[in-house]
Amino acid sequence: MLDVNSVNILEPDPSYTFIRQLNKKYEGYFNREIELECTVSSGRAMVTWYKGDKVIEDGKNDYEINKDLTGNCRLTIKKAKASHAGEYTCKIDKQEARTKTTVKVSEYPFKFTKALMSVHATEKDYVCMECELDEEDGEVKWFRDGEPLSPDKRIQVLKEGKKRKLIFKDVKVSDQGMISCTTNADETKGELVVEYQNRFNKKLKDTNAIERDRVVLEVELQDQTAETEWTLNGKPIETSDRVEIKNLGGGRHQLVFNKAELTDSGEVVCTSGRLTSACKLSVAQGESMPKINFEGDVEGPVTKPLIFHVPYQGKGRSCPGFDLSLF
User: Which fold has domain 200-284?
Assistant: First the structure.
């Protein structure tokens, strides 16, 4: 016969439930945290996390497990890798209650927060083209006119925090083109324009001339391929049979007045790109037809010549006047 006094009746184990399930799926990015979270009905409930059918241990393989007094259960993947993708389960110990989810890991879509700017430079300049990413660990690729740019002794690719820099230590004309920088999800572009290192080896000089003279103004440029523009008193010079603009090659350029006129006087400017050379051209009035003015009758002996001094009008290359003899 059973002795009732000798029977110990134990209370049943408490029963817990999930009052908030895991999301059906979580999507995260490589090298970034992914948090899986669910909630049990009591902070006293003990849970175990699984990846597939393997128990996850706190602190191993970039996993961190936390549960607070209110029953919030959290699994954190500290630096997600491809191996962290898969099925995850959170199970209440000693019970069948569980919740499942799937984790997907992909590349973070890096975006530019500062775009490339176009650069105008002269050959041999130091040029730095710079852009900036939203995250420091983003990888970029550099291109010129769609072709990959490879670093060398003259061209450098630098990574400084979120900044990405393309540096030309000694830029060449052949470096110019559309420069682009790309990530796995974004692109920024800027044009690099490089001019020849140019200067005036020979500049314009102030010139004095006389009407109808042939006047030649000449410059010589370092860049033998550079073009020139000529102006007189701020207005473009128009060529004609009288006025010529010549490119003699080898960087030599001439402005020729075959017959200078008074209206050619003023400031002559030769422009090549950002370079200018200027001079003053002064054209004086030339010789004009002589005028002989007699005051009354002229008398003289028949046996001797009559001599008259006739002055020129304007400036000339000959004497300022001549003598007219009548025999």
Answer: Immunoglobulin-like (2.60.40)
Whether this model's pTM surpasses 0.70? no
What's domain 18-106's architecture? Sandwich (2.60)
The DSSP letter of residue 4 is: G
Structurally, at CATH architecture level, domain 112-195 sits in Sandwich (2.60)
Residues in the chain: 327
Residue whose tokens read 């630098």: 158
CA 168, CA 181: separation in Å to the nearest integer?
A: 15
C-alpha 131/C-alpha 189 separation (Å) is 9
Calpha distance 98→48 (Å, rounded): 9
Would you kindly state where each structural domain of the chain is located, as residue ranges? 18-106, 112-195, 200-284, 291-327
Q: For each of the chain's 327 residues, which pLDDT tens digit applies? A: 555 566 666 666 789 999 999 999 999 999 999 999 999 999 999 999 999 999 999 999 999 999 999 999 999 999 999 999 999 999 999 999 999 999 999 999 999 999 999 999 989 999 999 999 999 999 999 999 999 999 999 999 999 999 999 999 999 999 999 999 999 999 999 999 998 888 899 999 999 999 999 999 999 998 888 899 999 999 999 999 999 999 999 999 999 999 999 999 999 999 998 899 999 999 999 877 666 666 667 677 777 776 766 665 555 554 444 444 444
State how beta strands 275-284 and 207-210 pair. parallel
